[in-house]
Write the structure tokens for this entry.
Amino acid sequence: MKNCFPIRMKTLFKTYGFVGLLFALPAIAGCSSDTKGPVMALEPLPYAEDALEPYISAKTMNVHYHGHYAGYVSRADQLLQTCRIKEKTLEGVVRAASASPQNRAMFANAAQAWNHAFFWKCLKPEGNEPPQGRLKQMIDDSFGNMDACKAMLVESAGTIVGSGWIWIIQAGDDLKIITTANADTPIAHGEKPIFAIDVWEHAYYLDYQNKRAEYVAAILDHIVNWEFVASRLD
Ligand code: MN
């Protein structure tokens, strides 16, 4: 809050009075917490922590959500209080921060907040319908068939050195598989993600250790919310 403190206190006091000043200060400095708080909010997990077992354990989900994800959201919220970004949406903050090198920490934490909120929605407890209708058609046209799409996603996961994400993005009538490193996210590059898998080690190491491909295949074979993925199509 340091940079929210105005220099000309005397003038401001005359204008607003003591009580008025208490309310006016944050707004004067553009740091009003009521416009910023909701920007960084925890997306509730759309299923129980143990609902994706045995493919993702309750222990992994618990640490991933309350440890890693909540940490990103909390740090992003703190950084937003003191940075110059005035965006009112998480997407806006991610895009604005990606454009300026001095906001690297803001970008990393906001992008991870967005990526995880998106990732939770891409998953659903076992028993999902496979892709239907337009999504199925686009998968067939872009990759050959669903099995080929899964194989390409697993292969892509293996190409990431260190931490990152694999994505399916929509580009007009085409679907493409891309990867991003660390916190980077397609929405910072004007791209339209319809599906994501977190391949940071914290997402799978307790359950799969170094077998990243097995983790990705288990998600694809059992716990993808294809209805959500289809809903993302333009
Ligand atoms: Mn993660």
